[in-house]
């Protein structure tokens, strides 16, 4: 905290207090948060003046200066906080809020400098002064119940900053902070001083020097929207009505309304909604929430949740109640769609034994099915009549909601549906290609439309010039114009007929922008403001039951229903549906009410909310909302717990971006918690969720995924042995994302060793899952087959439904059968290999799991490569291309094999170019399995392209790397390839024979009968004999 001493006054971050006995007396404070501008001035060289002048003369000059500055400050509506010696401090916007506090402060500062120059001439001296001005958020605290000498305090950084920056001003000039400059640059001309390092401030501070006042001042820029009478929107309303006419003829339409906050998007929709209600058409309203973008499809789930609760007469309905309700919507919903939406409504990341549909699908399929199921539910009523649906505030939408909106035009093109989506953002052009889509940008009202609005709000003939005054202030933004007109109607004297009189209510409030205007209207509600403030802590939308419980300790001026009705009449709240749900009329109103609370009060109210929910007094809220409440209540551990639960739910629904945001939030919360068993468990749980999310976003071989698993296993190593099985998913990911084969092999050994005695059969199976892959890569084919045999005995189809997403994203049985196909082929059982790969594909199709289907095809394409079956490779690559749009690693692998087959079957140059590009991509996103195969293919392509030296260099490096890493299953083939290249270069027969002999030895040691046969055929064809093993040692390892 910044601290400075000036005489007997101590300033703590801008709060002046008495310091009796060196201690500040403390007590409970209450008050409000407000923006205030502080002015600090100081005489230049006052100590030198005391040496030059008699103290009495200096005192006269100093008093005169203080008197003049005090008069100037008061003239500009400033408040002189204190004078001390050669300087003083004043506030603008305190104690009374002021529309132009910053402007008044800068005007005062310039006038003080001008007056100082006049005084210098008067005294015949070189008197000079420096002035600093800064604007910032402060707490205006009520100190009446403390032992402090003042009844109020101003606590914040602005006074401290003003004190520091005045010393950076040149003599007889002013320096202002950046916030003040931004508020007043339309009123004054400035020159830039630059950034300065200030004592007590960690970062350099931008400073500006005001030169003079501009000719004209434009205080307000474009802000928000209106929702009283609709004016100036005839053309837009007519366009929407025309689209409705098309929709009811069975040509569904989507209309995007976009524009700044407050520009009138929702007001236009409300007008259309009222017109359609007269025709008997109900409106489905789906509201995107500021914090809802961490829950997939959140704007649709909440109203469906409420409808299910009403139908079931249960505030917390279960899955069966959800399915019954969804079935009741009609046959168009369908059984599977009902199950999917019920899962989205009620499913949690744990305890999902009854939910099986989603685990057999790829992430992309889950997202697509979820969106299609929701679309089926949303449009189900169109079978019995036209539907009007509104999706509000699309700029806050989650990724699945955006995907739903993108699919909406095609889904409703033959249905009687009009959908309108509102957004503050310009609509993505990719969404506008369909003929049944229209985008409309809303602009500000004209002066004539603003005048019409004022006439209708005023309820009598408004004074001349009032409409022009409101238009100038609001810049045509409807909500700003409406709120300003309402404020003037409530507070201005009816007899006031001029601009000065209309400015008065603005000067009484802190009216710098639309938020200030709304805050001023809230302040005019009296005791009702407290209800609005407390409700704002619940968010934009809340249930009446929770509000009742939250207000229980609060004294109310009237029964709650009367209070709510009054707030509705005042345009603060509105009822949704049957009235059980209440919403702030605009998010800006909710934010203004929330921001007016002290942080300590917010924290206390958030704490009340979580205690009510924990006690069971009211129904729980979604995990992501609970995480926010716990964070704001100062309970970071519980905030992290709920955020992780929400992230798990998102991950299961394949909403990876939303899960990632929640995990970022959770990790930030955990940094605020002391180390403990609970905190460590939560961190491991977070990492176990984050690993698959990172792998899905960046690729399983990405550094992001690797670092998460490495961190998790490092933490597990510090724990008791019995805890390790609990965190097996972290061990699995650690093995799966290893950066190279040698690391993966070592990790596999650790995995099997540490977990072989686990009581959980699935953990033992997944340990073997790691082992069979590693053994096959090491050329230990018999061991691989033994691991496969043992693993298949442990396999359980029901358990596998939930293990696929955790361990590699594919089914363990498919993987086992694929690895068995490899080892059987190497061991010479080609028929058994074909039978096993067919079984892998059939099982993958049986379980209907896309990632497992792709995994089986990965095995098949590599097996076709072993057999030099170019046509088979290309056919499988094409099949993968059809299926793997959401799996970049599989696509990259298939591209390599396709390039190899093309190159060797007729287009060497094109195949090589395609292969090199694909290899760079594959190395960027995938794990290192298959590297010896890829290097062998690459060498073959260089050879076909006539670049034999390059091919030999690749093989030299690859052979050495295989021996060094232990990934030797393809070593015999690499040695055989090099022998044939050496023969083509007419190298000595001994070098050729040596490579073939080493290949024969490696293949024989591995039991790789298929590779042994190839080497023997080459020896026979070339008329060479294999060298005895003792002759192999004449050459360096790997050559």
TrEMBL record:
Organism ancestry: Bacteria, Pseudomonadati, Pseudomonadota, Alphaproteobacteria, Hyphomicrobiales
Cited InterPro entries: A/G_cyclase, AAA_16, Nucleotide_cyclase, P-loop_NTPase, TPR-like_helical_dom_sf
Database matches in Pfam families: AAA_16, Guanylate_cyc
SUPFAM superfamilies for this protein: Nucleotide cyclase (SSF55073), P-loop containing nucleoside triphosphate hydrolases (SSF52540), TPR-like (SSF48452)
Single GO MF descriptor: adenylate cyclase activity
Keywords: ATP-binding, Nucleotide-binding, Plasmid
Alphabetical GO biological process terms: cyclic nucleotide biosynthetic process; intracellular signal transduction
GO cellular component, one term: cytoplasm
Protein name: Adenylate/guanylate cyclase domain-containing protein
SMART domains attached to this UniProt entry: CYCc (SM00044)
Domain Guanylate cyclase: 37-166
